[in-house]
Specification:
- The protein is mostly helical.
- It has one domain.
- The chain has three helices and no strands.
- The longest helix is centred in the first third of the chain and has 46 residues.
- The chain is elongated and about 65 Å long.
- The N and C termini lie far apart (65 Å).
């Protein structure tokens, strides 16, 4: 009877460890995918010498979003109040 309880505790520990692993994987995989996509986008712009008016680099897009953040959020914030 004691052996069954010990085996059950080991199984429970393995189950909890697997759940933690899957939770981290579920959180980490989308982040890694976005970073990989941004890296591929940036490198493809440089490698193929694509002109900015055809496809801007991620850095240029981020800079414009940062510079015009107030303009972009103004209509959204005015609708909420």
């Amino acid at each position: 009877m004691a052996d069954a309880f010990a085996a059950d505790a080991e199984g429970e520990a393995r189950f909890r460890q697997r759940r933690r692993y899957l939770a981290w994987r579920r959180r980490l995989l989308p982040i890694v995918a976005v970073v990989a996509l941004l890296y591929a986008w940036s490198e493809s712009i440089e490698l193929f010498d694509i002109k900015p008016f055809i496809a801007p680099s991620p850095q240029a897009v981020a800079a414009v979003l940062y510079d015009r953040f107030g303009i972009l959020t103004c209509p959204v914030l005015s609708d909420q109040f």
